[in-house]
Amino acid sequence: MTADILHELPMRWADLDSLNHVNNVVYVDYAAESRAMLVDDGLVGPDSAIAHVGVRFLRPLLLGRRPVGVTSSITDGELTQEISVQGDEEQTVFARVVTTYGPRVDAVLREPAGDPLPARVRRSDLDATGAVSTTKLFELFQEGRILLISTHVQAMRPGRFVVGSTDVNLVRPVGWRSAPYDMRARVSRVGGSSFTIAAELADGDQVLARSTTVLVGFDLATQRSRRLDDQERSELEALLA
Predict the structure, then answer these.
(1) Which pTM was predicted?
(2) Helices marked H in the chain — which ranges?
(3) pLDDT in tens, 205-225
């Protein structure tokens, strides 16, 4: 296990979402930027295959002048990164990103797979290897679940939900092509104050990546979690796979 390694990164206006919080995908981008620095320093192998990335969003992060701090620790096959704000005396952690390295396991598309949501890749989504980067995979899954929710859940209004956690399992590299890939998403669980969306990105019968995301009811006025109301729960339960 390595000693904790700190990287500082500037924040940008473009990092914010509609709630003026740092967008959940941007945390993955912060972690990826820090991970690239670890590769440059020889602490992570450049050819290490990423099998899984999980993010736990602990509290909202607002735009500020102080840089973001990404503190990394490395154990065998796993990289843990905690995201905070430099100069914060309390060292508040806003998100924790865990990246697991290792062999990827092939999978076939499950049935029933959920709503079809075509996912088109842009050339700017590709990394140096020619495959869609980890950050952009999170973004593609974000697009898919927004489409699912906006299509079926009338009670879903801006500011009513935030992402609590996201896990992405990488199966095969996703390359660029003009035709969209197949994405399917479904509501897999509805709880008292949160619900889960499971999604798969596929090429025909072959799964390329899987995602599981927990969304939490959010009170914009108090900036705290809340319970789902009856309309939200009813509409979400109607989508249960």
Answers:
(1) 0.91
(2) 24-40, 134-152, 230-237
(3) 899 999 999 999 988 888 888
